[in-house]
Specification:
- The protein is of the alpha/beta class.
- The chain has 15 helices and 10 strands.
- It has a 6-stranded mixed beta sheet, with helices on both faces.
- Helix 4 links the parallel strand 3 and strand 4.
- Helix 3 runs parallel beside helix 4, helix 4 packs parallel to helix 5 and helix 7 crosses helix 9.
- The longest helix has 17 residues.
């Protein structure tokens, strides 16, 4: 199976001279979610989940990283560099190792989930912790890349968004049409920008796919890190959803354009709502995503509760994008509802524990 650069080379900025660096990313499933749909008050047949946690390093970042690192290699780069809340670091480290390039990642100290930090270390990246938040780490990364002529692979790199737009092509191919609504988390805002780029390209080349119009882009942030909702940067963003704990998104303008052009919206949900959606996904559909990935689902639930949009028509197709695997952030589940049960190896002891379920 080919990765996204090979599969979508006709719509990507590559040529026969581009060395393809791939871990066979992409081709992630678009899963129907009937149990979750019924649980939140939707018809069973209209809800789908784009499960990006099945990418090689467990997040959607692999799509853009495959192209960014391929182009870095083509351009003769000596190494790559990024700032990250975790997923970009893991992906950059893996693809750099695949390409034989050095990789340096700058992480906000104490604010990166363990699963992501472990990945970056495992792939041999030089990991540097910065006393500050993500936005400060990114400013430093931009300065360092310029000073030492390294390739910056944050979403400032245009190839990142080009690679990430391939997910829009996959969603459209899987449905045979555009979704009516797409709900997704927004952190640095590159992903919502990239999806909209992809959908617009498909529309320009094919027109209405399956008779449907372009999807309404519904982006959601955490309430403690919601600069797009507030209309100003957040100096000290706070949320348990570490992947979207960003106070000044790089792709701010792209996200606003996606929402305005599509007739969608940008909203914010609480950490409590995010955690509730996170548990619903795991227990209703068997999908263990990281907390930030559940933000789009939490946003859908909030819209249903507000009843400000007609989201319940049986003919609709609603897609929620789940951006990363739950093993990226194992601490969250262990801090939550997990209760340790220890018994002696006796059937009567087991029966006592299981009695409420028998």
């Amino acid at each position: 199976m080919a990765g996204v650069v090979e599969r979508f080379r006709k719509v990507l900025p590559v040529s026969s001279r581009t060395p393809i660096v791939s871990l066979e990313e992409g081709s992630t499933p678009l899963l129907p979610a009937p149990r979750l749909a019924r649980r939140i008050g939707l018809p069973a047949e209209i809800l789908y989940l784009k499960w990006e946690g099945s990418n090689p390093t467990g997040s959607f970042k692999d799509r853009g990283m495959a192209l960014a690192v391929s182009k870095a290699l083509e351009e003769g780069s000596s190494g790559i560099l990024c700032a990250s809340t975790g997923n970009t670091a893991a992906s950059a480290a893996a693809y750099a190792a695949r390409a034989g390039l050095s990789c340096t990642v700058l992480l906000p100290a104490g604010k990166v989930a363990l699963g992501k930090l472990v990945q970056a270390l495992a792939h041999g990246a030089r990991v540097v912790q910065v006393r500050g938040n993500f936005d400060q780490a990114l400013t430093l990364a931009r300065q360092a890349a310029k000073r030492w002529n390294k390739t910056l692979v944050n979403s400032l790199n245009p190839y990142r968004l080009q690679g990430q737009k391939t997910a829009a092509y996959e969603v459209t191919q899987a449905l045979g049409r555009f979704p009516d609504y797409q709900f997704m988390p927004v952190g640095n805002a590159g992903n919502i920008t990239a999806y909209w780029m992809g959908y617009r390209e498909i529309f320009r080349s094919q027109g209405k796919v399956g008779g449907g119009a372009l999807p309404k882009m519904m982006g959601f942030q955490a309430q403690g890190a919601a600069p797009l909702v507030l209309g100003r940067p957040v100096l000290k963003p706070r949320t348990l959803a570490t992947a979207i704990r960003i106070g000044n998104p790089i792709s701010w303008k792209g996200a606003v354009m996606a929402v305005e052009e599509s007739g969608g919206e940008i909203g914010a949900v609480s950490d409590r709502e995010i955690l509730q959606a996170y548990h619903h996904l795991a227990r209703s559909e068997g999908i263990f995503c990281e907390p930030s990935s559940a933000t789009g689902v939490a946003g859908l639930v909030r819209c249903l509760q507000k009843k400000d949009r007609n989201l319940s028509s049986p003919g609709l197709r609603i897609v929620c994008v789940l951006t990363g695997h739950g093993l990226k952030d194992p601490e969250t589940i262990l801090k939550g509802r997990f209760r340790k049960i220890l018994i002696p190896p006796q059937l009567r002891s087991l029966e006592k524990v299981l009695r409420p379920c028998l």
